[in-house]
């Protein structure tokens, strides 16, 4: 072993030197060179840092740099995240997205253009004018539809979600507000009044009959009993005419 090479290293190094740091790593660790000013030293890491990707070999596992426009990558030719100002598409970092795609500034990716989609029209509403359905001949009716898919930045915008058209109805007079209710209330009051009147008349009749009955009973108690008239035929004695 070279005098400058040590096997009692720290930080996951299998061999190291005072000048170059790690020269080899323990199993399953990745070897990567870090630049400090004009000097490069070797370090051993469990995973590769940003801007690098890992490769495994029988004798050593190494971290290699991604392309300059790539922030993280799976291999040198397949990027997973681009640096600022670039858009990711199929593992590549592009300054401008291909035709048929648009740049998503939130994810920094090239995505498909999404056009607006709407539901079917609803049935036409009843014919109205100023919020009423009576008292006119010509009015308007409307129909609506809902947006089921909002468009992306370059997608076709959504069309109108409501339509109106003229309509003609058979003119009819509007019932005065509250008139129907007043009529019902008046009928109810009249019915209650009639029932109350009948009830009062029945009560008066019962009271009158009870009063007459009580008066007859009182008269019977105060008047003396009449003696029974004698039978004239029985009281008269027979006259003897023999003399």
TrEMBL record:
Residues 169-243 are annotated as: Disordered. It comes from the Eukaryota. Residues 116-170 form the Spondin-like TSP1 domain. GO terms for molecular function: heparin binding; signaling receptor binding. GO terms for biological process: positive regulation of non-canonical Wnt signaling pathway; Wnt signaling pathway. The keyword Disulfide bond applies. Keywords: Disulfide bond, Glycoprotein, Heparin-binding, Repeat, Secreted, Sensory transduction, Signal, Wnt signaling pathway. InterPro entries: Furin_repeat (IPR006212), Growth_fac_rcpt_cys_sf (IPR009030), R-spondin (IPR051514), Rspo_Fu-CRD_dom (IPR043601), TSP1_rpt (IPR000884), TSP1_rpt_sf (IPR036383), TSP1_spondin_dom (IPR044004). Residues 175-219 have a biased composition (Basic and acidic residues). It is found in: Secreted. GO terms for cellular component: extracellular region. Residues 11-110 form the R-spondin Fu-CRD domain. Its main location: secreted. Activator of the canonical Wnt signaling pathway by acting as a ligand for LGR4-6 receptors, which acts as a key regulator of angiogenesis. Upon binding to LGR4-6 (LGR4, LGR5 or LGR6), LGR4-6 associate with phosphorylated LRP6 and frizzled receptors that are activated by extracellular Wnt receptors, triggering the canonical Wnt signaling pathway to increase expression of target genes. Also regulates the canonical Wnt/beta-catenin-dependent pathway and non-canonical Wnt signaling by acting as an inhibitor of ZNRF3, an important regulator of the Wnt signaling pathway. Belongs to the R-spondin family. Interacts with the extracellular domain of FZD8 and LRP6. It however does not form a ternary complex with FZD8 and LRP6. Interacts with WNT1. Binds heparin. Interacts with LGR4, LGR5 and LGR6. This is R-spondin-3. It comes from Cnemophilus loriae. The gene is Rspo3.
